[in-house]
Design a protein that fits this description.
The complex is a heterodimer of chains A (about 55) and B (about 375). Chain A has about 55 residues and is mostly helical. Chain A has one domain. Chain A is about 85% helix and about 0% strand. Chain A has three helices and no strands. Chain A is elongated and about 45 Å long. The termini of chain A are far apart. Chain B has about 375 residues and is α+β, with helices and mostly antiparallel strands. Chain B has three domains: about 100 residues, Helix Hairpins (Orthogonal Bundle), CATH 1.10.287; about 140 residues, Immunoglobulin-like (Sandwich), CATH 2.60.40.420; about 110 residues, Cytochrome c-like domain (Cytochrome Bc1 Complex, Chain D, domain 2, Orthogonal Bundle). Chain B contains ten helices and ten strands. Chain B has a five-stranded mixed β-sheet. In chain B, strand 6 and strand 7 form a beta hairpin. Chain B starts with a helix and ends with a helix. The chains are: A mainly alpha (about 55), B alpha+beta (about 375). Bound molecules: copper (II) ion. The site of copper (II) ion has 7 residues of chain B, from loops. Chain B: Keywords: Copper, Electron transport, Heme, Iron, Membrane, Metal-binding, Respiratory chain, Translocase, Transmembrane, Transmembrane helix, Transport. Chain B: Its EC number is 7.1.1.9.
């Protein structure tokens, strides 16, 4: 799972090592990556909302 | 050699761009409110950031094209990736964007803060004029294009403020926070005065808010900036900012005039008085559609020799007071006073060869408006 989260974070930035990409694609459990994607997405939305609330005060 | 080329590229770019950025008339105005100055400096900061990025990126590109060209034996590199360089060139733009977003958001927040205003003004767009209402002060008027028709038709010399002048400007006090409530009676208009950094849509059924605190007395001009029909170019905005004492005087005068107008509806008006007033009203509010000579044009019917209109005064008054829904003929109930309606109807019944001889009295109209108002 930690591996998947790191890959999702790299995808958010848009930069990934080729070796890591191969490793990810060798895994045959896409569910882990989907879950990690949803999780990191949610955290990002909450983070933006938090900053917006702070700024609006 | 490298640095020399970079300097030449950078130098050339700034030589071309600096005068453009600083020249009067090319750039946006600094304006006369704190917000307009904020917006101007944001604009300049972002502009220079873009210039620097442009010089670096295009400088590097042109330099590489030149320095590593095929005829000098350059060989293409074949490496696949370089993670740290990629992270750097992703992170730098990210930081630049966030750096620009922070001051921009602070300014936006300030622009939306319409609380604690000293004066509230309702601004209503109408095809094709602006109506201003000083809320709680019983003062309201429409502001019509002031440029004479001959200049527009090309038969007269164009004036200095061609299409940027009105019969009655919006008068505002300097130093006070004025809240603008913008809406529209018909289609979407947009109220724009560059020197005040206000450009806000006026939408039927909505009320948009904005505010200004003007710092210098003066006359500030703008236009409707949402394509709103045939005379879109003919509904300018003129704001006259005056000292607060002068503003109070002006407001008192306007209140007095409004009271007088209301009471003058009671007395008997002579035919030539009505005709004179009617011609004024017709010229500023009706001629854009029905034409100066009453002959109409396209979908706008002729009023000269109009049988239906001349046969029936009631029908005529009803058209002007209530308009014709679903057509361009608006209701003038809220735009015109009883005196003005009586005058314009009288004028239409006796101008351009119409010889009904009818004079409609303001008192009749006032009664009618009161009846319908219930
Ligand atoms: Cu308009």
């Amino acid at each position: 799972m930690w591996q998947a989260i790191k890959s999702v974070l790299a995808a958010f930035l848009g930069v990934q090592k080729d070796a890591r990409r191969r490793e990810d694609f060798a895994s045959n459990r896409p569910g882990t990556f989907i879950a990690a994607g949803l999780l990191v997405g949610l955290v990002f939305v909450l983070l933006v909302a938090f900053v917006a609330v702070l700024a609006a005060r | 050699m490298r640095t020399l080329l970079a300097w030449i590229a950078g130098g050339l770019t700034s030589v071309v761009l600096t005068p453009v950025a600083l020249a009067d008339g090319w750039n946006m105005p600094v304006g006369v409110t704190a917000i307009s100055r904020d917006i101007y400096s944001l604009h300049m900061i972002i502009f220079w950031i873009c210039v620097v990025i442009g010089v670096i990126v295009f400088g590097a590109m042109f330099y590489s094209l030149f320095r590593y060209r095929h005829s000098r034996g350059a060989k293409a590199a074949t490496f696949h990736e370089h993670t740290s360089v990629e992270v750097i060139w992703t992170a730098i733009p990210l930081l630049i964007l966030v750096g620009m977003a922070v001051p921009a958001t602070a300014t936006l927040k300030n622009m939306y803060d319409t609380s604690e205003a000293d004066l509230d003004i309702m601004v209503t767009g109408q095809q094709w004029r602006w109506r201003y209402e000083y809320l709680g002060e019983d003062v309201a008027f429409t502001s019509n294009l002031g440029t004479p028709r001959e200049q527009i038709n090309g038969t007269g010399e164009k004036g200095e403020y061609y299409l940027l002048e009105v019969d009655e400007p919006l008068v505002l006090p300097v130093g006070q926070k004025v809240r603008l409530l913008l809406t529209s009676d018909d289609v979407i208009h947009s109220w724009w005065v560059p020197d005040l950094a206000v450009k806000q849509d006026a939408i039927p059924g909505f009320v948009n808010e904005n505010w200004v605190r003007i710092e210098e007395p003066g006359i500030y001009r703008g236009q409707c900036t949402e394509l709103c029909g045939k005379d879109h170019a003919f509904m300018p905005v003129v704001v006259e900012a005056v000292k607060p004492e002068r503003f109070d005087e002006w407001l008192a005068e306007r209140k007095e005039a409004a009271a007088q107008e209301a009471s003058s509806a009671d007395r008997e008006w002579a035919m030539d008085e009505l005709m004179e007033r009617g011609q004024q009203v017709y010229g500023s509010l009706c001629a854009s559609c029905h034409q100066e000579d009453g002959q109409g044009i396209g979908n706008f019917p002729a009023l000269a020799g109009n049988e239906a209109m001349l046969d029936d005064v009631d029908w005529h008054i009803d058209r002007v007071v209530n308009g014709v829904s679903g057509t361009a003929m608006a209701s003038f109930r809220n735009t015109l006073s009883a005196v003005e309606i009586a005058a314009v109807v009288t004028y239409e019944r006796n101008a351009w060869g119409n010889e009904s001889g009818d004079s409609v009295q303001p008192s009749e109209i006032a009664e009618r408006l009161a009846d319908q108002g219930e």
